[in-house]
Amino acid sequence: MKSNFQFLVSEPDTRILFDTAKDAEDLYAMGKFSNELESLRKIAENVARQLLDLNYVSIGDRSTFNDCLREIDKQGLAPREVLQDLYDLKGSGNSAAHTLHKYSKSEALTALKKMFDVLVVYTWMKNQNQNSLNLSKNFLKQPLIVR
């Protein structure tokens, strides 16, 4: 099955996110929902750091993901929905990494959709090109294991 995140491979700045995004889809398809959420959190943090860098906002090397999100909010660098999705992905990823909570397929799919939305908007913001926004019309398709 083709990845929902294939659009990331067309640019060097987003290409580095593709492998982890594809892995998250595969983890979802295998039912490894906690691992998927941890992977999505990693992508979300990298997107936040790239967004700051893209806007020439300097933040220390030892800054946390939360520090990055606060700075994005303070500078108004992302739409409110994207910022909230990043906070949600951070929270679920942290919880998946540090608790024994069993995540449902529904929770995992919701997180995957949030990541997809964040990446579509980020790609559009990065390119400042209206044509890129058409990616959002290609709604996320539920990943399945192909046998």
Q: Total helix count?
A: 5
Instruction: Report the order of strands and helices.
Output: HHHHH
- Kindly name the structural category: mainly alpha
Helical content class: 55-70%
List the helices and strands and how they pair.
Elements (H helix, E strand, L loop, with lengths): L11 H18 L3 H22 L10 H11 L4 H19 L6 H23 L20
List keywords for this structure.
mainly alpha; single chain; 147 residues; 5 helices; 63% helix
Quick take:
With 147 residues, this protein is mainly α. Helix content is 63%, strand content 0%.
Describe the fold and architecture:
Helices cover 63% and strands 0% of the residues. It is mostly helical. It is globular, with a radius of gyration of 15 Å. The longest helix is centred in the C-terminal third of the chain and has 23 residues. 34% of the residues are buried.
